[in-house]
Amino acid sequence: MITLPPVIGGTNETVFAHVASSIELPKHDKKRNILIIYKKNNNKSEIVTQILLGENFITQSKFGKFYKGYKAYDKYKGFIDAKDLHLDKRKKTYKIISKDCNLYKKPANKHKTNKKLFFNSKISILDNKNNFIQTTVGWILKRNAKPINFKTKHFLDNVRLYLNTKYLWGGNSPKGIDCSALVQELLKFNNIYCPRDSKDQKKFFKKEITIKNIRKGDLLFWKGHVAIALNNKKLVHAFGARKKVVMMGIKETIKKIYSKSKLPLLCVKRIKKL
After folding, report:
1. Helices (H) and strands (E) in the chain — how many of each?
2. Which of 101, 94, 119 is nearest to 173 (CA)?
């Protein structure tokens, strides 16, 4: 990766990629290849978001054993344990298309490990043997990856991978995810930019429509919550009340959120680029 020139204020920003090897993975996620960004510089702090394999984190300053910085993709700020960051100059050319996939020590089924890569992780290919490709963290089956620019016909085509995933505040993987990360990860896979938080998503997507004209892919916003329309009757969301990603009726959801939290539906937005 690169060291950027000094920015205003005199600090140096360094781009780090999450490419921890299988023996260097942090204790909290040895099997997951997922790193945590915290609200404060300690690992008991609130989780604000996560970093999947191959994503970049830009450091700005160091506080003890933690770096303060932001996620390169969406500029989301927070603190990350210094030991979890590793420089990597390799270009990420493929991405994981499965909900998860096993890592192998060698390109053979008998060498399967208990470690996994997860949907939307970005990888560099180091070698290619039989039905396997080698990444920086081990071998995976070829069928689990596609070129980095690959996209599906509609961004919701991958939503099945997240159904019944547990609700996790700050999570953004099939091991645990929140409402706004579900939207972001599905769009990101299809190379459509999307902010991290629902309040920022509401501002970013400009085209507002009426509930009567809702269709597949439209976003429904409440204060602190977002859902995705599957059609004009159903939606999908990471719903804290159900503690998982679920499909529900649109009318049912509007009624349930209002009855429990007194929060009305604020608006429905349409994503122009699909």
Report:
1. 3, 22
2. 119
CA distances from residue 84 to 25, 42, 46, 65, 162 in whole angstroms, order as listed: 7, 13, 17, 10, 26
Structure tokens at 176: 């645990």
Per-residue model confidence as pLDDT tens digits over 42-65: 999 999 999 999 999 999 999 999
Q: Which long-range contacts link 83-86 to residues 24+ away (Cβ below 8 Å)?
A: 83/24, 83/26, 84/18, 84/20, 84/26, 84/35, 85/16, 85/18, 85/57, 85/59, 86/16, 86/17, 86/18, 86/19, 86/20, 86/21, 86/24
CA 101 to each of CA 74, 120, 139, 144, 274: distance values in angstroms, whole numbers, following the listed order = 25, 11, 10, 7, 27
Q: Residue 35 in contact with residue 50, Cβ under 8 Å?
A: yes
* Percent of the chain's residues with pLDDT above 70: 88
Task: For residues 171-186, give the mean pLDDT.
Answer: 97
Q: Which of 7-21, 96-110, 185-199, 218-232 has the lowest mean pLDDT?
A: 7-21
Burial of 220-238, coded b for 16+ CB within 10 Å and e otherwise, reads bbbeebbbbbbeeebbbbb
Give the full edge-to-edge strand order of the sheet including 132-135: 112-118, 100-104, 138-141, 132-135, 127-129
Query: Is the confidence at residue 30, as pLDDT, over 90?
Result: no
C-alpha–C-alpha distance, residues 39 and 30, integer Å: 21
Domains of the chain (ranges plus CATH)? 14-84 (2.30.30.40), 94-147 (2.30.30.40), 155-270 (3.90.1720.10)
239 φ, ψ (degrees, to nearest 5): -110, 115
User: 205 near 219, Cβ under 8 Å?
Assistant: yes
